[in-house]
Amino acid sequence: MIIKKFSAVNFRNIGRCEIAFEKGLNLLHGKNAQGKTNALEGIYIFSRGRSFRAREDRELIRFGEEGFRLSIEYEDGSGDNSLEYSMLGRERLRKKNGYKLKGPSEMIGSFRSVLFYPDNLEIVKGGPEERRGFINVAISQCYPSYIKYYSDYKKALENRNCLLRAAAKGLWFSEDELISWSHSMAEYASYIYLMREEYIRSISPFAQRIMKEISEGEESLTIEYFPDIPEGNYTREQVRDEYIKVFTSSLDRERAAGVSLFGPHRDDIKLGVNGKDSRLFASQGQQRSCVLALKLAEGEVIHSLTGDYPVYLFDDVLSELDDRRRRYVLSGLGERQIIITSCESEEYRQYGANIIEVADGAYSQE
Ligand code: ATP
Ligand code: MG
User: Fold this and answer.
1) How far apart are the first and last CA of the chain?
2) What residues of the chain score a pLDDT lower than 50?
3) Is the CATH number of domain 119-306 1.20.1640.10?
């Protein structure tokens, strides 16, 4: 996958821009607060369906304007493609190759990219929700049907929680409805479980290999999935039945707590460095290596499933890595495209980077 052009109108601090990218290494270079991350944010919206840092799309509109427009031209195994995303007032419009798309879920899975930015360290340092967030986004790009199962699961969960809240307060609620939502949740949970299980099985060997390579054999990385059903080699129906057991066997506790205590929304994924829980025992450098290995492995999974590498978007993180790890990323690019942001440019010149100067929302090719 190669992004050739990114255009934006009234997006963040960008009035109007058109940036041409090349194969291999691209550098968005400039001082602080000029619009480097804004460009990556705009590009990544096409992969994730929404911004990775705004709570609401409205924040993306340039101050004083009514809406924004973004578009990309990219090349994948099928040839040249384009995507467009615009917002005017409350109206949103998404298009692929000129044809209207129904919603964000139809956009995800076309232009695939992997974003790595400083907050991603939370995948290692933070709570289980950070790791669930990581694999949710990663799986969505590989299997777009995951998005629908996940949002249906969340809806059923909200309804079930609503009844449990009533129960905890001693208010009347329908026991039948509670059982019915538990069954719906089990149905969606079975798909989520199977995709998560499969994804973790696919990404593990890549992450392990990369972690070994970047640490020159010194560090190992393991990824383990901890769902609420016992380990087993299940069919989809069996998984659903296991979840029905989970959702109906602790109802007394859940009624007292007023919330659903089990299910994929509580799953954890444990990352182990040299056999120890990385959240508790990894040094800062090991945490960085761990996230780098995960992000590069995410790209390898996309490549193994689709035959295409994603575009790698590295915001500020390369300069934080030590020389050895930075060299590992930059010299192992091969046919991959990477877009990085940095306030420095000297080192990247040696790698023949396409350097784009960023100043006050304007982008110029060197
Ligand atoms: P750094 O090196 O510090 O990370 P950067 O070049 O990545 O800087 P960006 O995050 O891209 O900087 O942000 C650039 C500027 O965009 C900031 O000054 C910010 O105030 C501005 N900005 C953010 N949102 C909007 C908006 N909706 N309208 C106009 N300007 C905005
Ligand atoms: Mg930035």
Assistant:
1) 24
2) none
3) no
